[in-house]
From TrEMBL:
Domain of life where this protein originates: Bacteria
PANTHER family documented for this protein: BLR4922 PROTEIN (PTHR21266:SF59), IRON-SULFUR DOMAIN CONTAINING PROTEIN (PTHR21266)
Biased composition, class Basic and acidic residues, residue ranges: 213-225
Matching PROSITE patterns: RIESKE
Bilayer-spanning residue ranges: none
Source organism (scientific name): Oceanicoccus sagamiensis
Domain Rieske, residue spans: 6-112
UniProt KW Oxidoreductase keyword: yes
SUPFAM superfamilies per record: Bet v1-like, ISP domain
Name of protein: Rieske domain-containing protein
GO molecular function, one term: oxidoreductase activity
Keyword Iron-sulfur: yes
Region (Disordered) location: 210-234
Length: 381
């Protein structure tokens, strides 16, 4: 788990206009809420007074109000009102501020940048309208559907599954693969395309007909053996794109956000773009069911992988040429380790009974005086 990346935090519908919403990621609690203009905000969910959970309080105009003694905080994390001081004596110490994180909301998802980098140094947020492959989704034929699912597995293991070209044949029987074509099957050699914060590949698979009616939404399923162009890549440690081109014109593009709850649990957010499923063929729930069923195939495998976390060396597993994408991902993780961005999870646990940390927010670069220490990090190089 790293600081200084964008993380999917909630679906738009999770955060109403009149109530704060709690989420727990990277072993930290966050509160999401909306100001009176409807803009979403994300703060560390621990009141700087005496530790109340802001998410368990209520909205007061554009401020979230702590349930314990009524302190009010705005979307920047500034304390705006302390009832015990009295209405005419609001001399609010600067040290009352709490961490506030940059937010982006689109396609039914609210993301937050969990780190302290200034804007021009941040890794980009992978999203359909800002993808490393230059795909333009502005045409009317594209529709999108968002959904989430929980996983009892480490987010890095999940990302490796998402970018793994060799698992389909054995995991996704509903795609028509069954591991039974060993006489003709192999993973073709592939090239990686690097970009600043990730890498990816596209590959042509010889694909059998689909065997399951929900595989590609019923009547649009592939009925005969044929070439299937597919590829995947990652952006940062936690975000994945997967493109499946069923035919030369029918595309399904998934943007998958693996947000770690802790080392062993993940919440996956999926924004699925498709250009061949008009409303009269599949409604949003049909597409969610299809994606959910495919994810379920992966979950069965992922929850049993040992060790639960990715090994920190390349010698305790045996990599094959088809694993080139995984090796590239692991190398990039090392680069982010070297920057000193990996959270020291064991150190958080060591203090769990009497000390609260916060993911440092961008304001910490320019302002001193914070109540909570920044989350412990594993030293870089
Ligand atoms: S703990 Fe939040 S107002 Fe006192
Ligand atoms: Fe899969």
């Amino acid at each position: 788990m790293y600081i200084n990346f964008w993380y999917a935090m909630a679906e738009t519908a999770d955060v109403p206009s009149d109530k704060p919403h709690r989420v727990t990621f990277l072993k930290q609690n966050f509160v999401l809420f909306r100001d009176e203009d409807g803009n979403a905000h994300c703060l560390h969910d621990v009141c700087s007074h005496r530790g109340g959970a802001l998410s368990k309080g209520k909205m007061n105009g554009s401020h979230v109000e702590c349930p314990y003694h009524g302190w009010q905080f705005d979307g920047n994390g500034d304390c705006k009102y302390i009832p015990s001081l009295g209405k005419d004596n609001q001399k609010i110490p600067a040290r009352t501020k709490v961490d506030s994180y940059p937010v982006h909301e689109e396609h039914g998802v609210i993301w937050a940048f969990l780190g302290d980098l200034p804007e021009d140094e941040r890794p980009p947020l992978l999203r359909p309208h800002n993808n490393p492959n230059g795909i333009d989704y502005s045409g009317d034929e594209w529709r999108w559907v968002t959904q989430t699912w929980p996983l009892k597995s480490n987010y890095e293991r999940n990302v490796e599954n998402g970018i793994d070209p060799a698992h389909n044949e054995f995991v996704h029987e509903r795609h028509g693969f069954s591991g039974a074509r060993l006489d003709t099957y192999k993973v073709q050699e592939y090239d990686l395309t690097d970009h600043d914060w990730g890498a990816g590949f596209m590959l042509t698979f010889q694909a059998p007909p689909s065997t399951h009616e929900t595989a590609h939404a019923g009547e649009t399923s592939r009925t005969e053996e044929g070439d299937l162009e597919a590829g995947a890549g990652h952006s940062g440690p936690n975000n994945v794109w997967t493109y499946i081109h069923m035919t030369t014109t029918n595309f399904m593009h998934q943007y998958l956000y693996e947000t770690p709850i802790d080392d062993y649990n993940t919440k996956a957010f999926n924004v699925s773009m498709s250009n061949f499923l008009p409303e009269d063929v599949a409604d949003d729930d049909d597409i969610r069911d299809m994606n959910g069923a495919i994810a379920e195939d992966d979950v069965v495998v992922l929850e049993e992988i040992q060790p639960p976390l990715t090994p920190d060396n390349m010698t305790s597993e045996v990599m094959m040429p088809a694993d080139k994408m995984i090796v590239s991902y692991r190398k990039m993780l090392k680069q982010w380790d070297a920057k000193g961005w990996r959270i020291d999870s064991a150190e958080i646990d060591r203090h769990k009974h009497n000390k609260i940390f916060a993911i440092p927010s961008p304001r910490r670069r320019t302002e001193k005086g914070w109540v909570f220490d920044p989350v412990p990090l594993i030293a870089g190089e």
